[in-house]
Amino acid sequence: MTAVDQLPAWKALERHARDLQGRHLRELCVEDPGRGARWRGRVGAVQVDYAKHRASEETFALLFALAEEVALPAQIARLFAGERINTTEQRAVLHMALRGDASSVFRLDGVDVMPEILATRERMRALCDALRAGAWRGAAGAPVTDVVNIGIGGSDLGPYMICEALAPYAAGAPRVHFVSNIDGAQISRVLTPLDPRHTLFIVNSKSFGTLETKANADTAKAWLLQSGLPAEAIMARHFLAVSANQAALSAFGIPEANRFPIWDWVGGRYSLWSATGLAIAIAVGMDRFEALLTGARTMDIHFRDTPMPDNLPLRLGLLGVWYADFLGAPSHAVLPYDDRLRSLPAYLQQADMESNGKRVTRDGQPAAWATGPIVWGAPGTNGQHAFFQLMHQGTHLIPADFIGCIRPHHPYADHHRALLANLLAQSEALMRGRTEAETRAALTARGLDAARVEALTPHNVFPGNQPSTTILLDALTPEALGSLIALYEHRIFTQGAVWGINSFDQWGVELGKLMAQTVIGELAAGEIGAGHDPWSAALIAACLPGAQGGAGA
Ligand code: F6P
Prior knowledge:
This protein is α/β, with parallel strands linked by helices. The protein has 23 helices and 13 strands. It has helices at 8-20, 25-31, 35-38, 57-69, 72-80, 95-98, 114-132, 157-165, 184-191, 211-225, 231-238, 246-252, 278-284, 286-305, 312-326, 344-356, 388-393, 413-432, 436-445, 450-460, 478-499, 510-525, 534-543, and strands at 40-43, 46-49, 107-108, 111-112, 146-150, 175-179, 199-204, 239-243, 259-261, 331-337, 374-376, 400-407, 468-475.
């Protein structure tokens, strides 16, 4: 297979990037003011404006040509057809089926996967209804007031982020908490105020082999057992689990009635739409969980069926390729102007970086081109008082997503106006900047003398030319949020498909896990084994029990 960087469209994009070098967004805007109306679209409750990009119609024409040359439309068709596109694990990638409805068609090896999904959803509904109505009783006959999700990575970040985002819809429901880290400080903080008689745990682990989740589940079990309630009743009334590993669930003691399935065609970072999202459904109710699915389904259908020029995730994905490979931008900022979306950057870090942080192509050849960007960000307006300095006057090109909600869920209209105004102003300021002449005029207007104006001008010039996409949700409803997350998922798919990498495995997380197991043994034994490099051995020695300043000191 021809490497993507040898394709004619790639070569044309390299030439085109040289032509576009030095062109400022201000100039592009003067040349084509009408693109503010053209380079935008809406899917469901989500509007996307991508006018403020260092690109022209020609850029997109070439990017579409590249998409054709890598057979992107066929790759999308294979994704939805349930082909085993996760080649290293020989798995299909069918998280879209999790947001399907009774009329959806998703097959794996010719077998319809929808009946099992819909049946699981019905079980989730029954459970959520019982919990929310106080009908599910604990071992002591008490209703559940607190639900603790134990999981990490995809078994934590999605449910956690969505529960935060939809908190206004969770009134009256059991409180949900999240424990992910192996750090005992976290589970200790979560459990300390809770009462075992009123607490239910969801052990969320596709593999049920993850160190952190196993340790936290064991600690939760011990914490419940200390209450003196009968062990069998504890397992029956205080533990649910979502996993594909039946043997491990049996060993842990989860009764079959409390087990929810997850299938090998659902990647962990794409799993919040399955029973992995139980905490969400408990918090906001099953109807709203289904609205989240509906929003994502709307985006799935848009991505699957819309021709390239109007396909929003595809456009955004191609822009990401353009920045990473032709304009040399190593990172991508996610800037939600909504406090409820404060965990979106962390969620997208896993979604994007675990998917596209790859250095070889699907057939194992080194990728000689940049792949997935470093994803980072924080909510506005906080970020403006932290890292925006670097975006405005630093030396890096940083494409950014500004994400806002037109209607708030709180009564403070002045706050919301100012929040939205900041979002809009920042994207404009980053794009336009402020020229030397404008800076002199502004400083002079402040009454500064000529020498001061001269001295301060270089420090107050804003180069601008920082590109951004603005994503506006009508309001942060479950449906809008579902569409937003699916928009990102398909954008990530688009980029991986162009780069020719497998976006659905994650071998890169394994080495550190393995080595940690060795060090755990060494710390427990108080002895360092062979095979470490001397620098690492010195650090391990500093942490051995009894070492000065070490664990035992
Ligand atoms: O370590 C990475 C990872 O495998 C993620 O891909 C996954 O979401 C997470 O760990 C948790 O895995 P599990 O659900 O199997 O515990």
